[in-house]
Amino acid sequence: MKTLHGSCLCGGVVYRAAGPVHHSSHCYCTMCRKQHGAAAGTYANVDRAGYVIEQGAALVTEYASSEHGRRGFCKVCGSTLFWRSTDSPERIAVTLGTLEPEYDGPVERELHTDTKPRWLPVR
């Protein structure tokens, strides 16, 4: 079982997430795009029981972006750390861009492709 390790941009928040990764995804919903300032939010979905903030727990804050969605970020540098649903409290989705070393698994899913930006390059 692989453990993922990550941190925020300023290094104030350090976390680990025990595997397995149930799936990883690019989410093109408007909320993910706005939060990340990018074409998508990219996440690895793992068991919440294995998610541990090793350093800087007091720096993590959450934004309730919907009735059930919670987005965690560092209140110092603004790095997006995770997304979680109150409808599925047993899971948490950590942001792939915060992982060290870089995530080496596949991204199997694309979510909300109806709002995928037209300006993305065609493969």
Task: Give structural attributes.
42% strand, 123 residues, Metal Binding Protein, Guanine Nucleotide Exchange Factor, Chain A, 3-stranded antiparallel beta sheet, mainly beta, 1 helix
Architecture overview:
The chain has 123 residues and is mainly beta. The chain has a single domain (3-115), classed as Metal Binding Protein, Guanine Nucleotide Exchange Factor, Chain A. The protein is 6% helix and 42% strand. It is built from 1 helix and 10 strands, in the order E-E-E-H-E-E-E-E-E-E-E. The chain has a 7-stranded mixed beta sheet. A hairpin with a 6-residue loop joins strand 1 and strand 2 (14-18). The relative contact order is 0.28.
CATH topology: Metal Binding Protein, Guanine Nucleotide Exchange Factor, Chain A
How many individual β-strands? 10
Largest sheet: 7 strands, mixed
Number of helices: 1
Assign a percent range to the helix content: under 10%
Strand proportion, as a percent range, falls in 35-45%
Q: What's the overall geometry?
A: globular
Provide the domain count.
1
The computed structural class is: mainly beta
Gyration radius, rounded: 14 Å
Can you give me a brief rundown of this structure?
The chain is mainly beta and 123 residues long.
Set down the secondary structure blueprint:
Layout: E1 3-7, E2 14-18, E3 23-27, H1 30-36, E4 41-47, E5 51-55, E6 60-64, E7 69-74, E8 80-85, E9 91-95, E10 109-111
Parallel strand pairs: 3-10
Antiparallel strand pairs: 1-2, 2-5, 3-4, 4-9, 6-7, 7-8, 8-9
Family: Belongs to the Gfa family.
Keywords: Lyase, Metal-binding, Zinc
Protein name: GFA family protein
